[in-house]
Design a protein that fits this description.
This protein is α+β, with helices and mostly antiparallel strands. It has three domains: about 80 residues, Uridine Diphospho-n-acetylenolpyruvylglucosamine Reductase, domain 2, CATH 3.30.43; about 120 residues, Uridine Diphospho-n-acetylenolpyruvylglucosamine Reductase, domain 3, CATH 3.30.465; about 100 residues, Alpha-Beta Complex (Uridine Diphospho-n-acetylenolpyruvylglucosamine Reductase, domain 1). It is built from ten helices and 17 strands. The strands form five sheets. Strands 6-7-11-9-10 form a five-stranded antiparallel sheet. A four-stranded mixed sheet has the order 1-2-5-3, with helices on one face. A three-stranded mixed sheet has the order 4-16-17, with no helix packed on it. Strand 6 and strand 7 form a beta hairpin. Helix 1 packs antiparallel against helix 2 and helix 3 packs antiparallel against helix 6. The chain is globular. Bound molecules: flavin-adenine dinucleotide.
């Protein structure tokens, strides 16, 4: 780690030690990361990733943290944040080249102003373009991968590469960028010609509907559970299933299943990761008793000593002695 710190200092790359991760996610939950780095240029990103690799420092890349649950114990390693200074875009005819740190709603609005259609579904998603691509995020049965022409990224070995949409491995809320070890730096989109008025009006409808449905007054991370191809045709979306199980308003500590939308867990103030994990465990167990299936999580959990996994993966019994010990401590 010392060598990495020396390199960051010598290149003037902004970093902090013991940075509270609650300040870097929309749930406002999470303890300190040993090292938190916020590069300002693609060259600084490449130098940082290469220093992590050479010195065997465990690391993860994040954007706005709008799909992440950090642990109260933080992360033992380095977090690389692709932030606003790595944003920006260029629109030429029906093609848009975007840097990964661009805020997705900002890109959607700019394409509307240019009379380009295709990103209306992303106007209310509070993440960066890098995170949106990694999650293949979207709404209204659309995903960002539908409009992607190419993605430029730093591979695990630090080499700059370009993937076609096929190579990105896009599927429902999935891509090959999700392990947090490949860093998306830019992407190209091809959109459809329309008029600014039409695109803006569609975006206003999308936003109106989201304000009506989502509990946006409390910290949250959007949908906690994701649609499942086997569950959806039989019982509907996860929010509906959870609501039908009577779980709206269920609370653990300051984490609560939203009364407004049952697929949202809101932070009423001082919720910790163990409150959210406990609530998710209970929801999954009640749903399993009721429909005989496990609902998968969309939100990703950052394990302090390991890395990033979809939250449901930590519940495989015997897989997580640390979690079991923490839950016993809480119960006693
Ligand atoms: C109120 C609210 C509403 C939401 N609505 C939606 C919705 O309608 N549809 C939807 O799909 N999601 C939604 N989300 C979830 C979230 O906003 C999206 O998943 C978003 O795309 C995540 O972007 P981010 O920058 O916050 O990524 P983060 O949460 O920081 O990271 C998510 C994943 O992306 C990876 N990642 C981030 N940046 C990069 C990068 N540059 N290179 C490689 N990997 C990277 C991380 O390693 C991690 O695996 C919502 C969240 C909130 C809080």
């Amino acid at each position: 780690m010392i060598r990495v710190l020396r390199m960051l200092e010598s290149m003037g790359i902004p970093f902090s030690l013991n940075e509270p991760l609650k300040n870097h996610c929309t749930w406002r939950i999470g303890g300190p990361a040993d090292l938190f780095v916020q590069p300002r240029t693609d060259e600084e990103v490449a130098a940082t990733v290469s220093a992590f690799r050479r010195n065997d420092v465990p690391w993860l890349v994040i954007g706005r943290g709008s799909n992440l649950l950090f642990d109260d114990d933080g992360f033992r390693g380095a977090i690389l944040k692709i932030g606003r200074s790595l944003g920006g875009f260029e629109i030429r005819e029906d093609r848009v080249t975007v840097r990964a740190g661009t805020w997705a709603p900002c890109l959607a609005r700019a394409s509307a102003s240019a009379g380009l259609s295709g990103l209306e579904h992303a106007v209310g998603i509070p993440g960066n373009v890098g995170g949106l691509i990694a999650m293949n995020g979207g709404s209204l049965r659309r995903s960002i991968g539908d409009s992607v022409e190419w993605v430029r990224f730093l591979d695990e070995d630090g080499a700059l590469k370009v993937f076609s949409p096929d190579e990105c491995g896009f599927s429902y809320r999935r891509s090959r960028f999700q392990d947090g070890r490949r860093v998306v730096v830019a992407a190209g989109f091809r959109l459809k010609r329309s008029t600014p008025g039409e695109v803006r009006s569609e975006m206003e409808n999308v936003l109106k509907e989201r304000r009506r449905k989502f509990p946006l007054n409390y910290p949250n991370c959007g949908s906690v559970f994701s649609n499942d191809t086997e569950i959806f045709p039989l019982w509907g979306a996860p929010g509906r299933v959870i609501e039908c199980c009577g779980l709206k308003g269920l609370r653990m500590g300051d984490a609560m299943v939203s009364e407004k939308h049952a697929n949202f867990i809101i932070n009423l103030g001082e919720a910790g990761s163990s409150d959210v994990i406990g609530l998710v465990r209970t929801i999954r167990s009640v749903v399993r008793d009721s429909i005989g299936r496990d609902i998968p999580c969309e939100v990703r959990y950052v394990e302090p000593e390991k890395g990033m996994v979809p939250l449901h993966e930590i519940f495989r019994s015997g897989d997580n002695p640390r979690l079991e010990q923490k839950e016993q401590e809480k119960g006693s």
